[in-house]
Amino acid sequence: MSYDMFKNKFRNLIMFRNLTRYLYESSMSHGYLELLAIKSKQTRRAKLDSNISEDGDERNQLSYAFQNLNRLEVQSLPPLDKKTIYKIDLTENNFTGLNDLKFLIEFPNLKTLILDKNQIQSNIRLPSMVNLTTLWLNHNKIENLSIFIQNLAEMCPNLRYLSMMNNKAAPSYFNGGSLVEHNDYRMYVISKLNGLTMLDDKEVSAEEKSHSLSVYGKLKTRRKSSQQKKTKKEDKQTAESNFSCVGSIEPSLQELESLPDVESTTSEIEISDLPDLPTITP
């Protein structure tokens, strides 16, 4: 074998060895990276699980999202302990909130209710849900804010998180509302739902709470004063009406005085006019 041939073979062997090592190291690196990715994913999942609340556990949730439902009968609910359900997702259905949410009364410990992209109306009829703290109603048909919030305040007195963006009753930049309208909307809702800490995509500040009470609190006081004045006026009118009724009785008394004397009439009745009574023998 000539020197040149040996040199070429040796060079090829070195190149093959380097290529083999490269491929081996690449495969090991790729496998190591996969392992790191899996471990990272598991770590993130563990952190997520450690921070998740009880209502976030899949065992404590029900989802009927994206099913085009307009009614959900109690009989169709899964056979489970409804007291352990803390979250229900009804996103993208056709619920109106009029008579089609009665089944929620079966979940007394419900904390989170998601009703995004439905047909929810202003006069929503919810059962009493004292444990509900989170309610999402984005992209619905809510137009009358006062009626809607009055119902919420009565049936969900402990709400902390409320989101109703892209409703006509919640004016904002996204649906053509002005900044003044948006701020007034926030003030009204915050004044009626005192426990709110988050409205739509913004936290409720202490300044907003104070300002909302100063605006709508005074309005409530003025309405109460006006109602009191109205009540006093009605009472006065009632008293005057009663006095006029007393005055109308006087002629009747005068007419009674002109009637013949009852005693003189009865005195003219003779004993002989009375019927004979039967004798009773002992």
List the helices and strands and how they pair.
Elements: H1 3-51, E1 61-63, E2 87-89, E3 112-114, E4 134-136, H2 145-155, E5 161-163, H3 179-192, E6 198-199, E7 202-203, H4 206-247, H5 250-257, H6 262-267
Parallel strand pairs: 1-2, 2-3, 3-4, 4-5, 5-6
Antiparallel strand pairs: 6-7
Helix pairs in contact: 2-3, 3-4
Descriptive notes:
Helix content is 46%, strand content 7%. With 282 residues, the chain is α/β, with parallel strands linked by helices. Helix 2 (145-155) links the parallel strand 4 (134-136) and strand 5. Helix 2 runs parallel beside helix 3 (179-192). The longest helix is centred in the N-terminal third of the chain and has 49 residues, at 3-51. The protein is extended and about 130 Å long. The model is unreliable at 26-55, 221-225 and 262-271 (pLDDT under 50).
Keywords:
282 residues, alpha/beta, seven-stranded mixed β-sheet, extended
Beginning-to-end CA distance, first to last residue: 170 Å
Q: Report low-confidence residues grouped into runs of 5 or more.
A: 26-55, 221-225, 262-271
Q: What value does the Rg take, in angstroms? A: 42 Å
Structural class: alpha/beta
**Strand residue content:** 5-15%
